[in-house]
Design a protein that fits this description.
Blueprint lengths: L4 H7 L4 E5 L4 E4 L1 H6 L12 H4 L10 H16 L3 E14 L2 E17 L5 E10 L1 H13 L4 H32 L3 E6 L4 E5 L1 H6 L10 H4 L8 H11 L3 E10 L8 E13 L5 E10 L1 H37 L3 E5 L5 E4 L1 H7 L18 H17 L3 E8 L5 E13 L2 E11 L1 H45 L4 H33 L7 E4 H14 L5 E8 L2 E4 L1 H18 L5 E8 L3 E8 L6 H4 L23 H11 L3 E7 L3 E9 L7
Parallel strand pairs: 17-19
Antiparallel strand pairs: 1-2, 1-5, 3-4, 4-5, 6-7, 6-10, 8-9, 9-10, 11-12, 11-15, 13-14, 14-15, 16-18, 19-20, 20-22, 21-22
Helix pairs in contact: 5-6, 13-14, 14-18, 15-16, 16-18
Length: 668
């Protein structure tokens, strides 16, 4: 006959319940459900102390701790653990319904192992002994001792003693495990590992050493003298202390032995009969400390070498600073001068460096230049940008001379360590430059005045010749003469206009433009026809594609195209073709003027758009040009926010390309 253990478990009059390793309910019989006033579906899968917390206001109350320790002992040791008496609050059926009631229990915890022998569950058998406990208390009060209650009392005393021992043992074990140094106990003459803390296990690479002799557990140390030391301590009973000793240990499983430095003591443990039962090993892994000491020594050596190198470099810098003919100075990151060379002392006529260090230098700057120089210096200190300023410095005899001051920051990572600066005497050059600038401005003003005054008589000549031709009373010879006069006056007017534009660009830095709606196709057609009239025997083509409208200065745009076309006819091959092409896109227009012929020399292309520069090909007839047409064309493009470029080769000819925005943001 087979026994139905499941039915037996359920029908048992004694309360039983089963917990897994996480102390969660796996099963409970009917008797257990009755004494706890619960249902099975309320328990399964839930943690024991969540269902029965005893005192929810104090989760770590004594009853919970006592019950938890007993369960954990069973899981840890695999032995049966008993609680003779424990006060614990559980739900109970009362006249008022289900209420949480304090009861006294006696519990036994039995390990249930799996197929591998590991404790997988804990079976709790619990008995409600509240009435027995009450009877014992009443009997003790009346001076009577009942046998059952006396047994219960002795069991409770034994339990309390065992609890105290268990707490003390757990406390000592925790101290042993959490000690900052490594510890172990070796038993017997073979030095068998009986216990080792976490620090020791880490030292030896977490190998399986418990229950093994040192020679087998740590074979790499056998030939390093440590086993001989253990033998000596065990035989003589005399402790041994080692300081900073080197040992080669396998610190990772399967890895090679590596260096470790340890401070330790081998302390013999007496067997109480005058002999030695084992050796207590305690010490510290000072490998990191040794490494830090070595690194510190290396850093000190490097620092010493760096200091010597810095002193040598500083001496060289001072030698160079004193050797060059300029004033040399250095400043701290906050802008205070901390060094000046001998040239500075000689210029200012002072005998001590201290008279010029810090912020004293500003008192030698001309009053009109002081604030500007100080503000520029502050800006460089804030941003770290190079410092550059021209100012006048007072010499020892009271004379102010122009100097160019420059300084750059020496950085380490993102921090400024020092500023290195020089003062260069620019007085002669500055005064010469100012004189040349004044003379150039005067020359430009004279050109403007002369050009303006010449325009009026030339306009009169042009008007008179036009009237003569309109009357029609001249013979063919006189018509030719009048046309030559008219052509010469028109050329002179163009030259004057170019001079005026050049003067305007030089004086104000730009050629003014007035933006208005224009049609690029119409402007290009008119200019093309006018310029082509002057070269009736030359081949020329005009084409346009894309958008036509835009905002430009119509007259200036015509002037730009006319200058480029005139340049193409003048310098192109007589038998070649001159073409003008305009293309309108969504955001810009492109003007291209092309001619065949000898290319512009490479050395001339870089200065082609400068005033009074001409790229003249042999036999091109360019000798009549004064070299302002391309300069003015480039200035007009610039004033429109555009650009001009040239490409010239023997195979492809010469092509000028102008790009202008269709709607410049404002008059440039």
């Amino acid at each position: 006959m087979q026994i139905d253990f499941a039915q037996l478990f359920q029908q048992s009059p004694n309360p039983y319940m089963l917990l897994d390793r996480e102390l969660r309910f796996v099963a409970a019989n009917a008797a257990y459900l009755r004494v706890t006033a619960t249902r099975l579906d309320e328990l399964i899968g839930r943690p024991l102390f969540e269902v029965f917390p005893n005192d929810p206001e104090n989760p770590n109350n004594n009853s919970v701790l006592m019950l938890r320790r007993s369960l954990e002992r069973t899981l840890r040791t695999g032995d049966v653990d008993a609680l003779a008496l424990i006060r614990y609050r559980v739900p109970q059926h009362t006249d008022h319904g289900i209420e949480a009631t304090d009861r006294y229990w006696s519990a036994t915890h039995t390990p249930i192992r799996d197929g591998s022998g590991r404790v997988a569950y804990v079976l709790q058998h619990t008995v409600d002994v509240t009435e027995l406990h009450s009877l014992r208390a009443a009997a003790a009060g009346a001076g009577q001792v009942d046998v059952a209650s006396d047994v219960l009392g002795r069991a409770q005393q034994v339990q309390q003693h065992n609890v105290l021992l268990d707490i003390e043992r757990s406390h000592l074990r925790a101290l042993f495990e959490q000690a900052p140094g490594f510890m172990c106990f070796l038993r017997g003459p073979e030095h068998v590992f009986e216990i080792a803390n976490a620090a020791y296990m880490q030292l030896v690479g977490h190998r399986d050493i418990l229950g093994k002799p040192v020679r087998d557990a740590l074979p790499e140390v056998a030939g390093q003298g440590f086993v001989d030391l253990l033998d000596s301590v065990y035989t003589t009973g005399q402790a041994f202390t080692g300081s900073g000793m080197l040992v080669m240990l396998q610190r990772t499983p399967g890895g090679p032995p590596v260096e470790a430095y340890v401070d330790f003591i081998y302390q013999p443990i007496s067997d109480g009969k005058g002999g030695v039962s084992g050796i207590f090993v305690q010490g510290y892994d000072i490998s990191r400390q040794k490494q830090q000491e070595a690194e510190r020594a290396e850093l000190l050596a490097r620092e010493h070498s760096a200091r010597e190198a810095a002193e040598t470099a500083e001496e060289r810098q001072r030698f160079l600073a004193e050797s060059i003919p300029q004033q040399v100075w250095t400043a701290t990151p906050n802008g205070d001068l901390d060094f000046v060379n001998q040239r500075v002392l000689e210029y200012f006529g002072v005998g001590r460096h201290a008279d010029l260090l810090g912020q004293a230098w500003i008192s030698y700057v001309h009053p009109d230049d002081a604030e500007r120089s100080r503000e520029r210096w502050r800006q460089s200190l804030r941003t770290g940008d190079p410092y550059e300023v021209e100012f006048r410095l007072r010499r020892g005899d009271g004379v102010y001379r122009w100097h160019l001051a420059r300084a750059v920051a020496l950085r380490h990572a993102d921090d400024i360590e020092k500023w290195f600066g020089t003062n260069t005497d620019m007085d002669d050059l500055t005064r010469a430059r100012q004189e040349l600038q004044a003379r150039a401005e005067l020359d430009q003003q004279m050109i403007g005045i002369v050009s303006h005054d010449l325009r009026n008589p030339l306009n009169a000549i042009g008007l008179a010749t036009a009237l003569l031709l309109q009357r029609g009373r001249l013979d063919e010879q006189h018509v030719t003469i009048v046309r030559r006069i008219m052509s010469s006056s028109e050329r002179a007017v163009r030259l004057i206009r170019d001079f005026l534009d050049f003067t305007e660009a030089r004086v104000s830095g730009r050629i003014p433009v007035t933006l208005a709606p224009c049609n690029i196709r119409e402007i290009a057609r008119q200019v093309f026809e006018e310029v082509h009239l002057a070269y009736p025997d030359r081949q020329a083509h005009l084409r346009h594609t894309g958008e036509e409208a835009g905002n430009w200065d119509c007259d200036r745009l015509a002037q730009l195209i006319g200058n480029l076309l005139g340049n193409a006819f003048q310098h192109g091959a007589p038998a070649g073709v001159v073409s003008l092409a305009t293309r309108g896109g969504p955001d810009e227009i492109i003007i291209e003027v092309h001619n065949d012929g000898t290319p512009i020399a490479p050395q001339d292309r870089g200065r082609l758009f400068e005033p009074f520069q001409r790229g003249v090909a042999p036999g091109s007839g360019g000798g009549r040009s004064i070299g302002l047409g391309l300069f003015i064309a480039s200035q007009i493009a610039k004033s429109h926010g555009g650009s001009i470029a040239v490409h010239s080769t023997a195979e492809e000819g010469t092509l000028f390309t102008v790009r202008l925005p269709r709607r410049p943001p404002a008059a440039q």
